[in-house]
Design brief:
The protein is about 15% helix and about 45% strand. It has 9 helices and 28 strands. The chain is rod-shaped.
Length: about 450
């Protein structure tokens, strides 16, 4: 009785629930039993594959007849495909969508020409698959007449280059593109262009740029359904340094008798902005018009002419302003000579190189003498009479009259003047000068 009571006491509920070793042993036994059952029965399970692509078969049935084939509504990708099969089959099939085959055969195109059923299978173990359940099983298509056009490729730039530089030529290495696609799409295309980003550049750019197409409003058209014979082209962009330089000129020739160049020349514009490579621009400091192109010979009035400054640009230099026509108007001012009469007091006339031992004085009793000057009005107006250095020079007289020895007597002498350039004496001014020996 006592032994029986002790055995019962050992296996009370409390003893079992608090025995950790017993718990672990029970769990191990359960796992082993589950593994044995699973491997013996190989239960059926499911595996879902996401975004399975659809392969189109026999598309040439459409495209070989001058038609285009376009998948609509993204139906060329099936969002999900669920495979039902035994656990071992699913494990062997794996998780890759490459093992799921979705095809749409254009031979099965619907009567309305808008849809094709999608068939599903697997690359392996297809005979062990219980079922394949796709989220969608129809490929929707749009079939149109095919249209082809050819357009010039316009090259543009975007962004801002550095200050002091301008854009030169922008040239793609190919100037035409051939575009094919659905008639409804191609008919909307009005232009094709490439664009190059130039922000921050100070030197030439050569880059590959994608071709984009646009409608009449300049809005981009998706190229998803289009076929271009070339997708991108190389574009060469010139970036030129700029500099403001003056226009220089000189005048040659002699105007008609009685006329002279005033010295004033008007040039419009007086300076221009040029562009070119940095090295060429650094060595160019002016645009010079040679005097042979401004010849006033025989002119009796202002000479006005228009010159093409482009003819005088150094090689490799152009004008920075594309709107500048490169023309400059030049006016050389020519005026007739005028005469003006003046008087000088005899006391203001000096005697120079008076012969040794003689005294000189004017033989005339008059107080002044009159003389006439010829020149441009503007020069005569600026003339300072006090600066003319009036004089009677006996040295000049002896040379002019071949006199080697002076004697007492009266001589008809010229009054000499220091005249500014451009002003002349109309006729010699003569005065009688008396030489007397000193006591």
């Amino acid at each position: 009785m006592t032994a029986k009571f002790r055995l019962k006491d050992k296996f009370t509920k409390k003893t079992i629930t608090q025995n950790i070793g017993l718990k672990l042993m029970s769990l191990a036994v359960a796992v082993i039993l589950w593994f044995i059952v699973v491997n013996l029965t190989d239960p059926v399970i499911t595996q879902t594959y996401k975004n399975v692509p659809v392969r189109i078969l026999n598309s040439d049935i459409i495209t070989d007849n001058a038609k285009t084939l376009e998948v609509v509504d993204d139906t060329a990708v099936v969002p999900s495909v669920t495979i039902k099969a035994s656990r071992t089959t699913i494990q062997e099939l794996g998780n890759s969508i490459d093992n799921i085959v979705a095809t749409a055969d254009m031979k099965d195109l619907s009567a309305d020409g808008k849809s094709v059923p999608i068939e599903f299978t697997t690359t392996k173990l297809s005979d062990k698959i219980d079922s394949i359940r796709p989220s969608t099983s129809t490929l929707y298509v749009n079939i149109e007449n095919k249209k082809t056009i050819q357009l010039p490729i316009n090259a543009t730039t975007s962004g801002d280059i550095e200050s002091g530089y301008i854009l030169g030529s922008v040239a793609p290495n190919q100037n035409q593109v051939r575009i094919s696609g659905p008639e409804s799409v191609v008919s909307r295309i009005k232009s094709a262009s490439v664009d190059v980003q130039v922000t921050g550049f100070t030197g030439n750019i050569s880059t590959q740029a994608d071709i984009n197409v646009f409608d009449e409003e300049g809005e981009p058209i998706s190229e998803k359904s289009l076929s271009l014979n070339v997708e991108s082209v190389r574009v060469d962009v010139e970036i030129l340094a700029t500099k403001r330089v003056p226009v220089y000129y000189s005048v040659s020739g002699v105007p008609a008798d009685g006329f002279a160049v005033t010295g004033e020349v008007e040039c419009n514009p007086e300076a221009v902005v040029i562009a070119g490579s940095q090295a060429v621009i650094d060595s160019t400091n002016e645009i010079s018009i040679p005097s042979t192109d401004l010849n006033v010979t025989g002119q009796s009035e202002n000479m006005m002419l228009v010159v093409d400054l482009a003819d005088y640009l150094p090689q490799g230099v152009r004008f920075a302003d594309a709107n500048f026509n490169s023309k400059a108007s030049i006016t050389v001012f020519i005026e007739p000579f005028v005469e003006d009469t003046y008087n000088v007091y005899l006391r203001n006339i000096k005697f120079e190189d008076v012969p040794a031992g003689f005294e000189a004085e004017f033989a005339s009793a008059q107080d002044d003498v009159e003389f006439t000057l010829i020149g441009l009005a503007q020069d005569l107006e600026k003339l300072q009479l006090s600066s003319l250095n009036y004089r009677v020079d006996f040295g000049e007289y002896s040379l002019a009259h071949d006199v080697t020895e002076f004697k007492e007597g009266t001589y008809s002498c010229d009054i000499s003047f220091d005249l500014p350039e451009g002003i002349t004496l109309k006729e010699p001014v003569k005065m009688s000068v008396k030489l007397t020996k000193k006591d």
